[in-house]
Amino acid sequence: MVTSSSRQSRPRRLQNALAAAGVSAALVAAGPGLAGRAFADGSTAGSGSGAGKTLRVAMDGSGVDTLNPFTAYFNGALDLFGGIYPTLTTIDDAGKSAPYLAKSWKLSDDHLTWTFQIADGLKWSDGQPLTAEDAAWTLNLIMTDDVAGTANGTLVANFESVTAPDATTLVVKTKQPQSNLDYISIPVSGIPIVPKHVWEAHTKDLKDFKNESTPVVGYGPWVLTEFKTGEYAKLDANKTFLLGAPKYDHLIEQIYKETDAAVAALKAGQLDYIEGVNATQFKTLQGASGVQTAQAVGNGWFGLELNAGAKTRTGKPIGTGNPALADPVLRKAIALAVDKKTLVAKVLDGQGQVAEGYLPPAWPQWSWKPADDQLSKFDPAAANKLLDDAGYKAGSDGVRVDPKTSKPLNLRLGIHSDDTQDAAVSNYLVSWFKAIGINATIQPMSMSALNSDLGKGNWDMLMDAWTTGPDPTYLLGIQSCGTLPNDDGSGGNTDSFFCDADYDKLFAQQSTIFDPAERAKVVGQMQEILYQGNSNIMFYNSTHKIAANAKVSGLLTGTKDANGFYPAQSSFWSYLKAAPAAEAAGSSGKDGGSGAGLWIGVIVAVVVVGGGGVLVLRRRSGADDRE
Predict the structure, then answer these.
(1) What backbone phi and psi angles, to 5 degrees, belong to 283?
(2) What beta strand segments (E) does 522-592 contain?
(3) For residues 553 and 580, what is the distance between their CA atoms, to the nearest angstrom?
(4) Is the dihedral of CA 529, 532, 536, 537 positive or negative?
(5) Spatial separation of the C-alpha atoms in residues 619 and 75, rounded to whole Å
(6) How many other CB atoms are found less than 10 A from the CB of residue 448?
(7) Residues pairing with 546 in the sheet
(8) Are strands 461-468 and 410-416 parallel, antiparallel or unpaired?
(9) What are the phi and psi torsion angles at 517 (to 5°)?
(10) Which residue in 233, 126, 616 sits closest to 134, CA to CA?
(11) Strands (DSSP E) found in 167-284
């Protein structure tokens, strides 16, 4: 997937620079280092799905930060983990829990003990037995080790103990009732279960261990057999996978430095699947021969983060953020200065909607909107009045001065240098901020540089985005105090260094509530706190735009809603269910056209247990799959 979503970092979609510069798409379509490369199945990077054995997809634009699932948060890595590491459960199209490692599970009457029955007779890819002990060891390590908890620590924060009484039984006891525990370990966006016999030797060097020796020992629909940083990952099918073997023998995830190159490769039949093209590319693909297009419901937000005061968990200030942003009046004025409707119309070409609540409209059960008297409508006059009343006087150059420091309001606006959407939005922001006396300087940075600055607090404003599934726990959790970094820089998975005691109290409460309506009320209160805090200013929610080779079926899961949009997609099911389509099936190449039959829904048996689960799905999103 070319989509650029991830958890803590800001992977972004790829820009169109090569096409703009007139570089031939043929030179870049195969991706860096892949042209002419021969793989184990005898195919080469230039051949597409016609070979019938190898499925080729565009890897998420974030790439892979590390193959260590305890510390990784780029979507390229998450998609790979979903294919090569097992999880306790999976989900069906409706977002309900379904069997995976766990054949069944039950919840005690006091709602404090979950018992999972683990499938018997499974083996890791190196032949060693896969048992409940592997799951218990993985979860306990995340619970007790700050480094191991970097990516997923918030998901086990309520755990009291995890044990494996025998090879097929896993018992999780919680401190407080937890309504969504059967969703904390799901493919791609949940906790991957790793082989204890491999990872116990790396607990001392976990922070630096990259896990790049192939084949990577795991258990899933795929085995990672080749990996080249910044270029590609090659996976071989697990023909004995308990949920059914993949229909392709091999899967190649290719990294494209330019989204236009991936689009060109798809048109040329050298690529089979892209999720996350922009509005312009989507229009061109809708009319392309041999290409099918579709849109999935928007399940994320895109917006602006403001550094209101970076700090560690002990309250130690860190970073170089402008102290003026600690003033809620200034942050409110910035929110009022943004014309979200214009961004939807001009940047998204209308393919999205203005964002208000923190959680996206794809999940209406968590829908929240501010009251009319709280709504931050585009109103530069009101923003100017706020700043005037607060003593931010304009200098001779029109730039206001911070009354506390007597320094002009010069703010850095960090964007991704490889993201055309960041660039488009930032140009509007600079103009709008200038109109209220703020000088914003755009700072294009590589993803690695921007991510490094994020954790250190070396920024003022950053473009950002996240996606989530039906359960909001993870996405809400990144705004909690518990995700701030330790003083030594470890353990942090914060979004914008937001930390609020009232918010944290509600966060701890929400997952203990089993009544959906009551839980939604608490989640709404949390969104209200975030909205009024203006550390994360939501701009818009966009649809996910998808394109695929018409010779491949099964890549898009679920069925369309009343608006013609498919549910949020998961690479786990898309790649597992993908199959060569009959040549006679044909395709109109249009969204919802005669080739719609090539998109096949996934049906999975659901285990019904006490405690009404909801999905824990989170990904930090980039421009492609968010906007």
Answers:
(1) -60, -40
(2) 536-542, 544-549, 552-553, 579-580
(3) 6
(4) positive
(5) 7
(6) 11
(7) 275, 294
(8) parallel
(9) -65, -40
(10) 126
(11) 169-174, 222-228, 232-237, 250-254, 273-275
Specify the pLDDT at position 49.
45
Q: What is the dihedral of CA 113, 119, 121, 125, to 10 degrees?
A: -100
144: phi > 0 → left, psi -120 to 50 → alpha, else beta; which?
alpha
Task: Output 474 or 430, whichever has higher pLDDT.
Answer: 430
The residue whose two tokens read 């510390």 is 71
| SS3 of residue 372 by DSSP | coil
What residues does 107 pair with on adjacent strands? Answer: 114
Beta bridge partners of 301: 466
Q: Do the beta carbons of residue 418 and residue 14 sit within 8 Å?
A: yes
Residue 467 has phi, psi (to 5 degrees) of -120, 160
Burial class (CB in 10 A: 0-12, 13-18, 19+), 109: exposed
Q: How far apart are CA 140 and CA 29, in angstroms?
A: 44
Residues 6+ apart with CB under 8 A from 261: 18, 19, 25, 28, 29, 31
DSSP readout, 494-522?
A: -SS----HHHHHHHHHHTT--SHHHHHHH
> What is the rounded CA–CA span in Å between residue 606 and residue 182?
12
> What DSSP character marks residue 471?
B
**Is the entire prediction scored with pTM above 0.90?**
no
Mean pLDDT of 175-201: 94
How confident is the model over 211-220, as pLDDT tens digits? Answer: 999 999 999 9
